[in-house]
TrEMBL record:
Residues 17-335 form the Enoyl reductase (ER) domain. Gene3D superfamilies: Medium-chain alcohol dehydrogenases, catalytic domain (3.90.180.10), NAD(P)-binding Rossmann-like Domain (3.40.50.720). This is Enoyl reductase (ER) domain-containing protein. CDD domains: PGDH. Keywords: Oxidoreductase. It comes from Pseudorhodoferax soli. GO terms for molecular function: oxidoreductase activity, acting on the CH-CH group of donors, NAD or NADP as acceptor.
Length: 338
């Protein structure tokens, strides 16, 4: 059996997460029992939610246990099988964690899903045609439920979730405006992802300025907002919402490392009779097949061209993860392992 490199959570962050919170170790992969398979990971996913799980505090999910392999999504290939449903060479998506190999009891429902790489590259099953894509789909279709012609806004627009949101919104005949950090990300959002406009929040240092830019980009006001960031961006969007706007509260990454996220004008929620709903995509498994089918079609037809930031090798994962929390990624952040 091959040797396996793993990254463990060694200690919990105090304030900002640090590379020293993680530890790289090497172990043997255990021999397989009946029903198990050995998966060699080709890519692993780095996601903002992992920051929350590094804390001990109570949340919708259990904290990442100390001294154990960092949890996370992976795509790879079966390299050994003692399960008749999975053959060596098949490509699978699973939750193998920050390590080169995982031993999986493939009889457990939902732990491994075979994927077809003839139309969609393997890595996209961790992004546009995976959990982040379904997240965008759920917030758009089930919470915002837009009508054609309405104006939608999404923050962190160039990222894994935001880019999928744009393609899904355009497919429903909406005006879609992104908010992203920096001219390169905004150019990609407009020119390659096909958003109607994109605002660089980094050139707007206060709510008034960002809200004025939103007024220009959204002349009919904002009917639906998909929130990934929180803080000043949410304040600026609220000022431009129409009556009966819907907000899908997906993430608040500006606060994940401990920064406070005060809301300047909560009364706008009442004045504009806004419906705001938080959600966790893993609690809505019933929509995944429909969402993945649409997202796979958008990627296969070139209507969604997801970008990826790929760090090389397991040892690069901690720095790449810290970079994701600072916006240094450009598109879906992955680590390539093999
Ligand atoms: N509720 C759910 O079930 C669920 C599931 C998946 C993801 N999410 C959430 O969805 C959001 C996007 O996730 P993703 O995987 O698509 O990540 P991503 O957008 O690919 O990467 C994160 C991006 O967030 C932006 N960002 C980071 N710090 C920021 C700050 N202080 N202020 C403003 N923007 C900041 C950066 O883009 P810029 O350079 O443009 O600022 C960065 O590239 C996250 O909040 C995540 O927690 C929620």
């Amino acid at each position: 059996m091959p040797r396996n490199q793993q990254i463990l959570l060694d200690n919990r962050p105090e304030g900002e997460a640090q590379a020293s919170n993680f530890k790289l170790v090497e172990t043997d992969t255990p021999a397989l029992a009946d029903g198990q398979v050995l998966v060699r990971h080709h890519f692993m996913s780095l996601d903002p939610y992992m920051r929350g799980r590094m804390n001990e505090s109570k949340s919708y999910a259990q904290p990442q246990p100390l001294g154990q392999v960092m949890q996370g999504g992976t795509v790879g290939e079966i390299v050994e099988s003692r399960n008749p449903r999975f053959a060596v060479g098949e490509k699978v998506v699973g939750f193998g964690g920050w390590q080169q190999y995982s031993v999986v009891d493939a009889n457990l429902p939902g732990v491994l899903r075979k994927v077809d790489t003839s139309q969609v590259p393997l890595s996209h099953y961790l992004g546009a045609v995976g959990m982040p894509g379904v997240t965008a789909w759920y917030g758009l279709v089930k919470l915002i439920a837009p009508k054609a012609g309405e104006t939608l806004v999404v923050s962190a627009a160039s990222g894994a979730v935001g880019s999928a949101f744009g393609a899904l919104g355009k497919a429903r005949g909406c005006r879609v405006v992104g908010i992203a950090g920096g001219p390169d990300k905004c150019a990609y959002v407009r020119d390659e992802l096909g958003f109607d406009d994109c605002i660089d929040y980094k050139v707007h240092s206060d709510v008034k300025s960002l809200s004025a830019a939103l007024k220009t980009a959204c002349p009919q006001g904002i009917d639906g907002y998909f929130e990934n960031v929180g803080g000043m961006v949410l304040d600026a969007v609220l000022l431009r919402t129409n009556a009966f706007a819907r907000i899908a509260l997906c993430g608040m990454i500006a606060g994940y490392d401990g920064a406070p996220l005060p809301l300047a004008n909560p009364s706008l929620l009442l004045i504009n009779r806004i419906r705001l709903e938080g959600f966790i995509v893993s609690e809505h498994m019933e929509v995944w097949p429909e969402a993945l089918a649409e997202l796979g079609g958008l990627v296969a037809s070139g209507k969604l061209r997801p970008r990826e930031s790929i760090a090389q090798g397991l040892a690069a994962a901690p720095e790449a993860f810290l970079g994701l929390l600072k916006g240094r990624n450009f598109g879906k952040q992955l680590v390539q392992l093999a």
